[in-house]
Amino acid sequence: MDAFVTRKKRKSSPTPLNDFCEDGDGDESTDFKLTLLSSLHPDLDHEALLDVLLAHEGCVSDASAALSLPQKQNITKYSKPGAQSSLRSFANPVSGDLSSPVPAKKSKLLSKKGKTLFLFDPLDIAEHTPCTVIHNFLPPEAANDLLRELLFESETYEKITFKLFDNVVSSPHTSGFYVGSEEELNDQKYEYLYNGARLSDVRRLTPRLEAVKPKVQEAVNREIQHRIATKYPGGKKLRYQCPRPWAPNAAFVNCYNGPQQNVGWHSDQLTYLGPRAVIGSLSLGVAREFRVRRVLPRTEMHPAGDSSGAKTTQNAVADEDSLRGDAEGQISIHLPHNSLLVMHAEMQEEWKHSIAPAQAIEPHPIAGNRRINVTYRDYRPEYHPSLTPKCRCGIATVMRVVQKKKENWGKNSLFFIRAATATSTSATMLVGTILMTTNNGWSLCRQVLLDVPRWKCSWQRWLFFLPMG
């Protein structure tokens, strides 16, 4: 160790750095390499150094050599916080003009069963996930002002509670809900239902949330059009995707206080957003991991003859969800401060997402160990609660996507959620069809009502949407 310390002081000699390349760095941690790299380049911040180190596969000498290049353009690129240089530049070169558009083709998913693939480059994220990421979205001072405003607001946020298997559970983080007008505020408090209950704390958009909204709207619509042109078949919107431009009119703000506050695998509720919903998510404060995974039907998880697919008890739900999470592998997206994530139209029906707990986090100079996440949403008027079908008990239903059976995969279904104070009547078998008016956004529906005990209402209906959602 003494010999190494002596060598470390000789900055003019590149020899010691060669000891920390691919053939000899297995015993040294990333933190150690970053410390060494920081001593050689003290003017660059921690995240920029980490980006360069990752781009050079952990080789300190190569990373230092790249940072020492005289070109000013390279230094500026690495100095941007939270953004990593594209790793595709280290792959096999591609001939031709990279700036010209290329025909869209289905990319092979790089994630593997039981493993997590970490993506940093926005181009890789757009290629292999249903998301796009924009780093340094707002001007730095505007992002910091919004962060300060929402940190103050978050002091009065509460955890969302809901019923799960007759147990009252609460979210692992706190949340606030914001709308643009007094009319929308009253509508949300007295008309809308979330997990079978109404929201008691609905607020008007803060001045800075209101100011940022048109910027998010413009960026999301731009990314939607780019996604359609480069990724969707025929350069057209997906079937059932909303035909009009995305127009956010509400925002959920989540506060994650510390590395252990998280949210498990889920898809967002589509009852008021409609099918093929798009969401714009702005991250502020501490950087956290946003993970996504493709949903696999049970038949793909358990091949024919595999008895492991026979679990049906409630106790097996958690185990099965974990199995489904590992079946195709997970993809981790690094979301630093001031980054905008766009969840595209295929996200909610075909993928699930989560915020993973972290072993440790690097404190943010303003937020400390807190992360603020603003999800702007477009509540469509054709899915207003006044148009939501109700079960025989008279309680509003919720729209969910059938994801577990391959023959029904991708279909939208309405399920009844029983409120805590509701009493249900006895149900009998009833099969029929209902033709609902097209201006409500629904088409021909098949109604199925199962014979169930009095205490358990299991009303269900398949939904068949119009082509334009």
Structure description:
This protein is an alpha+beta fold and 469 residues long. The protein folds into three domains: 2-85, no CATH class; 116-302 and 312-383, Sandwich (Jelly Rolls); 389-463, no CATH class. Helix 3 crosses helix 4 (46-55). It has helices at 2-8, 15-18, 30-40, 46-55, 60-67, 72-79, 122-128, 140-154, 182-190, 207-231, 298-301, 317-327, 347-350; strands at 116-119, 131-134, 158-164, 167-179, 202-204, 250-257, 263-266, 279-285, 288-294, 330-335, 339-343, 351-355, 370-377, 397-401, 412-416, 430-435, 444-449, 459-463. The protein contains 13 helices and 18 strands. Helices cover 26% and strands 23% of the residues. Strand 4 (167-179), helix 9 (182-190) and strand 5 (202-204) form a beta-alpha-beta unit. Strands 2, 3, 4, 5, 6, 8, 11 and 13 form an eight-stranded mixed beta sheet that branches.
Give a quick set of tags describing it.
single chain; 469 residues; alpha+beta; Jelly Rolls; 3 domains; 8-stranded mixed sheet; 5-stranded mixed sheet; 13 helices; 18 strands
Give a summary of the structure in a few sentences.
Pfam families: 2OG-FeII_Oxy_2 (PF13532). Residues 1-12 have a biased composition (Basic residues). The chain is α+β, with helices and mostly antiparallel strands.
